[in-house]
Amino acid sequence: MRWNDYPIVRLVFPFILGIIAFTFWAKPLYFIIWIFFLLVFLLLLFSYFKKLYLPYKYRIVTGSIIYFVFFSLGFIAAEFHFPFETMNYYGNFVGKSKIAIARLIEEPKESAKTYKLEVEIESMKDETTVYHTVGKAILYVKKDDKSAKFHYGDKIIFKNTLVKGIKPNNPNAFDYNNYLTRRGIKFTAYVKSEDWKLISRQQKWEVKDVANKLRKKILIQFQKNGISGDEYAVAASLILGYRDDLSDDLTSAYRSAGVMHILCVSGMHVGIIYLIVSFLLGFLKGFKKGALLRLILILLNIWAFAIITGLSPSVTRAAVMFTFVSIGQNINRNVNIYNTLAASALMILTFDPFYIFDIGFLLSYIAVISIATFYDSIYSLWVPYNKILDRLWQIAAVSIAAQIGTAPLTIFLFHQFPNYFLISNIVVILAIVPIFYLTLSSLVFSFIPPLASWLSTLSSWMIGALNYFVIKIQNMPFAVTEHISFSAITLLLSIILIISLSVMLIRKRPNWIFVNLSLIILILANSIYENEKTIKIDRIVIFNIPNHTALLFHSGTYSAMAVDSAAFHHKELIKFSTDGYLQKFALQPEYINLDSNYNLDAKLIKIGDFLVYKNKIIAIINTNKFLSYNKTLACKYLIIKNKKQFSIDKKLAQYLPEAVILSNELWPKQIEKFEAKLEEQNYKFVDLRSSGALIENF
Prior knowledge:
By secondary structure, this protein is an alpha+beta fold. It has five domains: 3-81; 90-204, CATH 2.40.50; 209-337 and 403-481, no CATH class; 488-535, no CATH class; 538-697, 4-Layer Sandwich (Metallo-beta-lactamase, Chain A). Strands 1, 2, 3, 4, 5, 6, 7, 8 and 9 form a nine-stranded mixed β-sheet that branches. Strands 16-17-18-19-20-21-22 form a seven-stranded mixed β-sheet.
């Protein structure tokens, strides 16, 4: 293998670096455009004028120019898709506009109380002026009969309640604001029923609109054919990539079993479509121009499927790959898998550069690259003579190869690993192919209701059996290794190790084993260092959670979480705010009910409304019974979470706190009243609602 055999791979790296460079800078750099045109001009001079042609020994100069050209292209592509610095970005007019007009650019997503709309803000209005604008926003519209009729392309007028997203107020929490910013969205709004009005429906013909309508018809046909419940949710996800009806429990089961990728339309699904269409159109090879017609029909079917399923990164990647494979077969040329992947990535990132930060995009490419790199080496470890065993071993080898590449990133993101992924993948992949064929056949034969119903019944039974198997795997002992601490440095070293292993296998360089061993030692050394740092931690974290109180006592590997009664009985209420910190340090705290009378463990004592941790007293104003306590104590913190009336002056004099914590459970007017009183008496205080979580190190 030579590096020169992978020209597109060599070009996609500087393109990606250009995108990343822009995200760190996030401002237009017009000189980059001038440098780009200058370098292109130099390349043309070197190419067409022999006197200026550089000798081969100076090829590094030409190569560097080409690399910088693609770096500039990546930077320019990201800048082009970054609306925040443009003069007509709607964010520039939010403060002075009362009304906004927006168009739905995605199908609405339904939740318990609202419809989530992704919109393009086309104009904003004040009393006298209309501002024509660009830029995307997220609207949460109150759920009712009127909002239930939203469709892609609808244009609405609404009262301007747009606000900028806020950064997470808790340590290591998911940064939803940053996630939206990477998607070109900085503002969101909650819109009441009386504050919006439909202006017009989608008028012009658009491929996306047609695809959305066709997808809805297919989903309705599934239900007409008798597919319902969890079986319908899995069928919709498997065939169309429509996951809105998947329950949290079922999603969790598939994730814990290590087969969540099955429910995301990807290369395997596109591959099945490719094989079906190729087989059905095989007869065209015997006709003049039949091969060309067959190629066109194959490509039309592949891209029609990709469009109907929503053109997700994984589907687009697969569609581009099979496009190149089909063209290569038609002209009798072998297609290099790495160049194909690089070309598809280049195409996708040109249209949306910020896909480089999309987890689905990254996992899709990493999985395929890992399979292409490691599959042959894994499969060659054992070559069964039995055809059935050989087929099972092929599936196992693919699963192991994919896991090698994706495991570091998935562990870093989700802090868990599915221990039975190999068993799950073998069974699920064997089941998915007939399920896919049966479900598609039920659609094809919908004009014969009895046949469609019979095929759907068979498909539903198989999906039900598959769901049962996945749930059983999830409930098996040691099904998932959870709370894995995996830092960014460990992730980086793991990625370098995988790349090094790839080079060793692809370029057949056994001496690279020493590089790989060195990297493994570095990973282990870093893990030891991080464990030592964790052991030295001794702190209290008071989280900022709307309508809830949560205190984490963290000392080395010890942790205890004191929470209000509602959160104690329903821990999912605080999961979003606390999980980031708990996962970072691989903590599994004991939960203590702040509204209970008594608790005692190794380091934390709770008696009534007092918490004692390492000889430090934390008093909690929680209920009226607390007011009957009449002794004086010196407290580290006084936490106020009681909404009932009481005299704060008495409590301050009685408990002499170093600081007062105003809980998120209090009413805003109560907080204002307490803040005024505390400022008057020169007490240090923390309003969790405005300042975010408090971290106190000992």
